[in-house]
Sequence to fold (486 residues):
Amino acid sequence: MPLPLEPSLAARRACLGLIGVLFCGTSLAQGVWDPRALTPSPDPAAVARDPRLLRGLIEDGRRIFLARFNALDGVGRPAATGEAKPTRRLDLGGNAFDRSTGPDATSCVSCHGQGGPGGGGDFSASVIVASTTGYVAATPDHGSRIAVRRPPSLFGAGLIEALAREMTDALRAQRDSGLAAARASGQSRRVALATKGVDFGSLEARPDGTYDASAVSGVGPDLVVRPFGWRGQAASIREFTITALNQHHGLEAVERFGWERTGRRDFDEDGTSTEVTPGQVTALVMFLASLPPLEPRRLASQGDPAIARGESAFASIGCTACHRPALPLEEPVFVEPGPYRPPGTLSQDDVAWRLRLPLALAPNTAARAHPSPLPVRAFTDLKWHRICDAEDAFLCDELSLRDGRPADAFLTAKLWALGIGPPYSHRGDCSTLSEVIRHHSGEAAPARRAFLALADEDKRAVVAFLLSLGFVDPAAATASPGAGAR
Fold:
């Protein structure tokens, strides 16, 4: 049964008639002579039966990533917000685009294009992600009730999700083993949580099958490692993609906003009932998962002395405690769909098919050409950390966040695309790397102080090392899909 229509939305239905064609901006009314940008994608189940079709599915995802979406595709969400979960809009704004609340882009690549499709974005592409009903406010003490985010680089996303899954598997296995031991002994057990050399604190397993997660650090009580989003909100490329399609384009995936979950065939009331199908989402996911990380400049330069000096100093001052140079990946294969998905995101419980994509560390190479386990050099530990305090609150000036975590907790940034260039920080409001380093506080304060105590030559070497990570050679920017193919 469909959900009852709220009285406050009754007037909105009038916009679906002739008046809507003229004044209310329904999507079907504004572009009847124009073609849709989104085209049907192959059935993922058919691709799973014939892996030879996988390359075509990835190419289809690339076309979607580059496409300029329009009203016929379902751009705009007049009756819905940009929230990750289906949420009805309170102010019933009808704009197709709005910089403060979204939608704010006509294409994925318009924000993720620095260094090539899948890269990061400049400050001009930064988005507001915590103000979805039109309320935007700032306070005189540098605090803001909005969250500004620079589009992150997505190069190497398949490797990152595969790493996070293995880490989640390990943490949950440790928890389950502790619970079994507690039940068998009739006494509570302290369970240390660590995986791939990363310490996630501990939990207390109880004989009754429950556990106390108050001593867990860097991950939520459910022990699911979420490697996407500046604050680690999403566990998978698919979850990230579905949320981004709605937030930035007003394109709503059927699996989250369709009839089965919401009781509405056109949840956002823009006149388009089927906007993004599971096949189209899968194509986007497989394209993003196929993007390898960029090759560091220091490998191409065969050992620049300044870069080598900076790498050594970076480790000696304690930066690698969080920005771990590499995490080992046991099985370099991306599997879609995955197991750790929230409601409204296609998971392994929803379908019988599986897509398997071998992962590589660099463009035009195969996973089998690398050692096992595969060292994923992303310079992160995939943990949340406190990165500000009263001494320096620059990186944590948001007063109102909706993910249930403190405003000073952020995912350790992945550094392997820094060579693409500025701007830096999660807001994209720092033009140099040294600015970001100087503002590291909270758990990162000791490393910041150690950096500031270095000789100027060593400071410059650290920056040179960081700028060598994920370098894009402009002359080769169109040579391979992972390094800027257009």
Observations:
- Confidence is low (pLDDT under 50) at residues 1-29, 133-143, 474-486.
- The CA atoms of residues 198 and 381 lie 7 Å apart.
- The chain has 15 helices and eleven strands.
- The two ends are 46 Å apart (CA to CA).
